[in-house]
Structure formats: C-alpha cells, structure tokens
C-alpha cells in the first residue's frame, strides 16, 4: 500500500476540568469548570484558533454511580455540569468555524426532540452541528426515566438504529429549496417540497414533518462510539465519525479495516466515515518532564476514588481495609466473565503491584490511548497510526484544562503541520466540509431523480 | 383601594417575523426570521437596551395543522423555526441582563431533561432562565411522540402538575453551598448537601439527583399560561408568571383576583406570582396612522389563510366556493357547542359582514388584547389595567419585527417612564430579582431549619 496522502482530522474532546480522573484537583485546573461558561468559551476559541475540526462533549443523563463517598471526591461521572446541547448552543454564538458535537442518548430521548435540537443547532451555527449518537447502559440513567434498569444490549442497539432512521428521515422533511418565502405571492414554502415521514416502527411512531427547515449541512454530522459488534454495525450504517479506543497499532488497524469494510453493504464509500480514536496526551519538553506531569496527576487521585476504579473486580472484598501500599489480598472467585478490571488484577499479580499501584495503573489508562512524551514523540505516534490506516484523525482528550490543550496546540500541532499532516486553515465553511464528508442529498430529491 | 404603587414588568414575546398572521409578508419583516440568528440577536439586544424583563418564546413540538395549502402560506403554526432552548442558549451568550424564557411541553417531555436544560441555561446566563410550562392539546404534536391523540384535558393537567413537582424537586438536588471544590482535601461536594429525589408518582418515576449544581436563581422562573380552571389552579400552585389573554378590563380584573386569590392555599403570597397578559400593539404617531398600519397588515392575509381561521365554524361548508366580498351563506347546523369562531359568525350576521370582513375580524383579534393607537393611548390602557389590578405587567406581542418592537420601545416605553411606570435600569442581577420574585430556598434546607 502506498504511503497515505492527506491530512488527519482533530477533535478537542472537552470534559470539564480535564480527562484525568483527578484533574479538578490540579493547580492548573478550573475546579468549577462544569458550570463556568467562560472556561468553555476560552477552550472553544483556543481550539478554533488552532483549526481543530470540532469540539466534542460527552454526556450522561444522570450521575454515573451512587457511592456518594466516591462521587463527592470527583468532578467526573457527570456529577454536576452543563447539559451539552444548551452549552454548545451558547458556544455557537462565540465561535465561527469549529464543529460543535454533543452527545445525546437514544435510550432515554425521543427522536423528534433530538432531530429538532440538532437541526436547530446546525442553523444557529451555520452548519457546524454534530450529534454523538449513544445508547445508555447505565441503570443510574434509566432510573431517571421511569425505568428500573437500562435496555439490554441488543434491544438498545435496535432502538438506536430505528432512532437514527427517524432522525435522518425528519431532517429530510423539507427540501433545501422548499422555502421561496415570496412576500409578493404569499408562498412561504412549496407544498410539494415538504415531506411527511409517517414512521411506524417497533420502538417509535413519528408522523413528522420536522418543524425546522433543512439545515445547512443537510444532516448534522452523526458521530458514533460503539465498539461492540452491534456498535460497529450501527457505525457502518449511520455513523460518519467513529470515536473509539484501541491500545495498540494492530488493534487500531484491525478495527479500522473492520468498520470501513462494513460500509459497502450500506451503499457507502470508505470516505463516508472517519475513524477518530481518543488520545490522552501528556506532553513535556522532555520525556522525563512528561512523565513527571503524569505522576503529579496520579498523585492527586484520592484513595477512595482510586479504590472505586477496581472495586468491580474484587468479588465484593473491601480493599480499603488493607494497606494501600501492601500487596493485593486473596480475592474471592466471581462468576462474572473476565472484565477489563480483572485483567488488570492478573497483571498486578504478575508484576507484584501494591493496591495503590494497581489503581494507579487502571486510572492512568482508563481505556484510552495514552501518550506520554515530547511533542515529537506524540506526533510520531499519531502519524504512524494515521499513515498505517489505523485512524483518520483523533479526538484529543487533554488530562487537564486549559494547560493540557495548550500543550497540544503549542507543541504537537506545529509538529503535525511541519509534517504536512494538519491544516493551517479551515478548508470549508461547515463541519462536514472540514471533515471531508459529503453533504447528504435529501432522500426525496434522490428518489425523484431515480424515477426520471 | 389606594392608587397602586410600583412599576409594571415587561416581556418581549418574540415570534419569528411578528405576531400578525401575515407578518412575514410585510415589507419590514425578515421573511427568513425563523432560522435567522442575527435577527433574534438584534431583537434580544434591543429589548435588553430598553430594559425589558424578559424575552419570551412560544413553542410547538410539531407543526400545528396539516392543511398544506394553508401552512405553505404562513410562517406561523411552527412550520419551520429554531427550537427555543437552543435559541435561548445561544442568545444567553450575546446578552447580559434580560430574562430568557422558553416554552417546553409537559405532555411530550421527560421532567429530568427539562429540569436539566433549564438549570443549565440558568447557569449559562447567570440566573436569567425561565420555563414556560405548557400542556400540549394538539394532535399534531401527539403524533410525533408515539401517540394518535393528545392527553385529555384533566390528565394533561395532572401530568403537568406532577411534572412540575419533579422538576422543582430535581432543582433542589444540591444545596447552594454543596460544592466546596476543595483541591487540597479532595472534597468536590459535601455528601450531606446532595439529595436524591426518589420520586414515584402516577406519571413519573425519577430517582435523581439532577446532575447540575443548584442554579443561580435556585429555581429558574416558572411561567404558566392556562386560563381554564385546571390551568389557573396549576398557576396558583407552581406558576410565578402567568401569561394570559383577556379582552376587557373587567375580565382582566376578575382573572387577576381569581388567580391571586388561589395562592394562599398553597402557602404563597400575592407577590409570588406576576400576571402578565399578552398585548398586541399597533402604534402610530396618530390614531389614523396606527389604523392604517393595521389595515396594511390585514390586507396581506392570503384568502386561503383567512378562510382557514373560520373553517372550524362553517359546519363543513367550504367558504372558498363563495365570493369573498359577498355575504356569508347559510351554514349547516353543527353539533358542537358554541366556539369562539361561532360567536364571531353570529356577530358577522348582526353586522352584515362579508366573508372577507369576517375573517379579518377573527385574524385581527386572535384572542389577544389588541391596542391600536398612539403611544399615549396605549400607555393609558396599560396604566389603567395595571393600577386597577388587572395586570402586574405585560408581554408585548409586536405585529411585525423588528419595527413593531422599535415602535413600542421608542414610543410607549418613554411614555411609561414619564409616568413612573417602568424602570430606567435593571434593579437586579437575575430575572427573578428584576421581576421582584423571591429566590426559593432549597426544600431540604427549609426542612432542616424547621426541624431545629
């Protein structure tokens, strides 16, 4: 395969004080970040000045977890922060170019609301909206929505798939040129360019039409994050950006080839979907400085929070009763299959880790691709995975805001530019144009043409 | 009763091109207002410069009606416009003082989402959010949410009442001082200042807590608009601003006394709720100029739209088959009780109106209090209803934007100020402070004090 041409795409994944679980305790951090609008304005404008494709917000419709001793020591787990759609709408008024991607669950929402809000955001921002389509697997969210438990895996994805069909159908309610708004004749829209959906499915019955004009991007960009079999299939069917997490180059290449290979059966091209894994970069002028920065963050993890990260793998044993710097005690057998946490415990035994060392190991990785090093070292890694077809770009998850984002902007981005791997200015006007995604034709216009 | 002291409150009720049904066809109108963010920025900033308490957006979760010949000639009926929560969030970033009130239906929403989005908007705007709590009585909305018809009246209001209880309960999830965010000790919030709702009611089961910190106003201001018996009871229980419509001073005084009289049984004071009827002002330097302005708008009503306004009262007869400027033909009897439209038909017969004259009469009033005259005449009317305890303020519904709002700001507001009836600067920092509404204590803090 020839050396890959082109440039990679970048998202700035914003989480209030930072992505490290103890970020809010760091001296650089804004502890009240979750409800500090000025903080987000500064981050969004910095990311825009650096020509990031998009800013990205995760979401939870409820606090994740109910151990209040743990929760009260963390700004993570959606304890108390802005709701992303309102936040992104406000940010649309103080930015001009950067994409605005927010998460909304298909499990505890109605497709009409979601179609409408993202279409509205797309109009407000002149074509910069993106919807991160997720399913909710947390009982803590379910309990806020008239349920005792979340939908099981298969049902969740079937619901998500139908949800996406309804949303994209609603986005095509009006053709792009449906609105002459001709004051003279009194014709506001052309009746034949308005389409009623009449959706009746297993999960949803939605008549339509959407009461928002077709938006600048036609459809806001759909982001998707599932890595399960059902998740990859949904990405191939409906996703345009995939946010994912693979630790190694080989895993990344496999995932990339797998998902891209599923597109054809939905009539889609390989370029119709961009794979943008998360990257957690800790950047120093030297490798030692980067490592020291990382350890400074790790030292801020409160033991209660640290122990909670491995509590799922202890078979009910309360590790807080044992010395933190002592060995891991014998644990009861559990019936559950090997979780990621249990794999960590196996590792800990092999490496003879203390309890504290174990939770620090888990806290550090947290499933993301963690890069600790100099800008050149990090650029090497990003370049390799890009040119080897393991990624089309990355969602950058700085450990602490604002300094972690600044480090990336001042160190890594110039290095990527020197290598010709990242833009110096926006190519397009909309998020879709910058990502190199085609603007979808209205399905009703396509059918009319096919029938000619 | 002594002459009433104090000043009246003003809301700018914004509807895309204007409140007159043909507004979008007017030369002054922005025909694409519904998706033109700059248009709304200009209106919000003008209202703020004039010291309006709030801007107000109605909403429909679906287009009202399905007669496409009629819909295609109007920008009304929620055909195609921004969703209000996203729009208000964006406007929060370009305004500093004015209240931001948006409508959200209790019929086709979940209380957790609504509590969260308005709390988020309250944080984004530093205490300027208001929720206009409505029930949805349109089958066209119901059909977008898995239903064939809307909830019947009684059920709708019972659901709305429980919905409001859940929302306000969620807004008290955290006490105001729950977040020390102490980097040193690692304590982000005080566990005992977080309260789990555990709501289990007839319509909703919501565990909580809300994952947003208690907002600057404690609770965003709740606006309510029902004028039915159930609506007035809900206003007295949960409303803080009532948007209403009465044609005459006597009706207004009766409504005012009625609703204010219901507050005591909910342990509320008369000042805990502000009655702010809608006013549709057409303003000229002379009365003749004002009347000419009104007639210019009326002439823009397309006959198809005009006839649709009275179609409910014709017993199925298609009036478009008769000459517009001829008399009203004999109409078949209908079984339904006398609607407002039918009362208009009786009136038309007494006054010998043509079909066109009839629909113009209906279009003009549309249920709102219409004032056509000079700034002084309009100020006289507003003053009278205020000092006679028929209103605490008004929601101004200009016929056409932006000029109808400008006319009010340049003509009526200076006149109100000369009479000492309206502020020259904001008294407070939050919407609640400007409206003279108390900041609600957190219910958990109250209980703790009561228990002392």
From TrEMBL, chains A, B:
<dbReference type="Pfam" id="PF00296">
    <property type="entry name" value="Bac_luciferase"/>
</dbReference>
<dbReference type="InterPro" id="IPR036661">
    <property type="entry name" value="Luciferase-like_sf"/>
</dbReference>
<dbReference type="InterPro" id="IPR051260">
    <property type="entry name" value="Diverse_substr_monoxygenases"/>
</dbReference>
<feature type="domain" description="Luciferase-like">
    <location>
        <begin position="22"/>
        <end position="392"/>
    </location>
</feature>
<keyword id="KW-0285">Flavoprotein</keyword>
<feature type="binding site">
    <location>
        <position position="103"/>
    </location>
    <ligand>
        <name>FMN</name>
    </ligand>
</feature>
<keyword id="KW-0560">Oxidoreductase</keyword>
<dbReference type="InterPro" id="IPR011251">
    <property type="entry name" value="Luciferase-like_dom"/>
</dbReference>
<feature type="binding site">
    <location>
        <position position="228"/>
    </location>
    <ligand>
        <name>FMN</name>
    </ligand>
</feature>
<dbReference type="GO" id="GO:0016705">
    <property type="term" value="F:oxidoreductase activity, acting on paired donors, with incorporation or reduction of molecular oxygen"/>
</dbReference>
<protein>
    <submittedName>
        <fullName>Putative nitrilotriacetate monooxygenase component A, NtaA/SnaA/SoxA/DszA family</fullName>
    </submittedName>
</protein>
<feature type="binding site">
    <location>
        <position position="59"/>
    </location>
    <ligand>
        <name>FMN</name>
    </ligand>
</feature>
<dbReference type="InterPro" id="IPR016215">
    <property type="entry name" value="NTA_MOA"/>
</dbReference>
<dbReference type="GO" id="GO:0004497">
    <property type="term" value="F:monooxygenase activity"/>
</dbReference>
<keyword id="KW-0503">Monooxygenase</keyword>
<feature type="binding site">
    <location>
        <position position="157"/>
    </location>
    <ligand>
        <name>FMN</name>
    </ligand>
</feature>
<feature type="binding site">
    <location>
        <position position="153"/>
    </location>
    <ligand>
        <name>FMN</name>
    </ligand>
</feature>
<feature type="binding site">
    <location>
        <position position="227"/>
    </location>
    <ligand>
        <name>FMN</name>
    </ligand>
</feature>
<comment type="similarity">
    <text>Belongs to the NtaA/SnaA/DszA monooxygenase family.</text>
</comment>
<keyword id="KW-0288">FMN</keyword>
């Amino acid at each position: 395969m020839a050396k890959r041409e082109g440039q990679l795409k970048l998202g700035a994944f914003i989480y209030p004080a930072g992505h490290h679980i103890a970020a809010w305790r760091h001296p650089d951090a804004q502890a009240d970040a979750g409800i500090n609008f000025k903080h987000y304005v500064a981050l969004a404008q910095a990311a825009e000045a650096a020509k990031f494709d998009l800013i990205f917000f995760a979401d939870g419709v409820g606090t994740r977890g109910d151990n209040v001793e743990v929760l009260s020591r963390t700004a993570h787990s959606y304890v108390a922060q802005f709701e992303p759609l309102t936040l992104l709408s406000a940010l649309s008024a103080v930015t001009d170019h950067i994409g605005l991607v927010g998460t909304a669950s298909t499990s505890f929402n109605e497709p009409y609301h979601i179609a409408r809000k993202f279409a509205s955001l797309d109009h407000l921002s002149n074509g910069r909206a993106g919807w991160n389509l997720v399913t909710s697997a947390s009982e803590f969210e379910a309990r806020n929505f008239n349920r005792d438990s979340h939908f099981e895996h298969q049902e969740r994805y079937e619901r998500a798939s139908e949800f996406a069909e309804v949303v994209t159908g609603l986005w095509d309610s009006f053709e792009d040129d449906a609105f002459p708004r001709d004051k003279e004749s009194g014709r506001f829209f052309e009746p034949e360019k308005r389409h009623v959906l009449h959706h009746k499915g297993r999960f949803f019955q939605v008549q339509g039409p959407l009461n928002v004009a077709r938006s600048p991007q036609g459809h806001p960009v759909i982001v998707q994050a599932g890595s399960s079999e059902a998740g990859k299939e949904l990405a191939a069917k409906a996703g345009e950006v995939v946010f994912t997490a693979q630790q190694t180059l080989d895993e990344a290449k496999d995932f990339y080839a797998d998902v891209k290979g599923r597109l054809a059966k939905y009539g889609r091209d390989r370029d119709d979907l961009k794979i943008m894994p998360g990257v957690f970069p800790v950047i120093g002028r030297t490798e030692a400085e980067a490592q020291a920065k990382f350890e400074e963050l790790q030292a801020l993890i409160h033991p209660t929070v640290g122990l909670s990260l491995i509590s799922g793998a202890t078979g009910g044993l309360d590790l807080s009763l044992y010395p933190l710097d002592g060995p891991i005690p014998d644990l009861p057998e559990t019936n559950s299959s090997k979780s990621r946490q249990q794999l960590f415990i196996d590792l800990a035994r092999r490496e003879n880790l203390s309890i504290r060392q174990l939770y620090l190991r888990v806290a550090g990785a947290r499933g993301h691709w963690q890069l600790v090093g100099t800008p050149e070292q990090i650029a090497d890694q990003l370049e390799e995975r890009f040119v080897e077809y393991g990624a089309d770009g990355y969602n950058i998850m700085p450990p602490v805001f604002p300094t972690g984002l600044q480090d990336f902007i001042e160190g890594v981005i110039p290095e990527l530019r020197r290598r010709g791997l990242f833009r110096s200015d926006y190519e397009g006007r909309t998020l879709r144009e910058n990502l190199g995604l085609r603007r979808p034709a209205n399905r009703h216009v396509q059918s009319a043409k096919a029938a000619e």
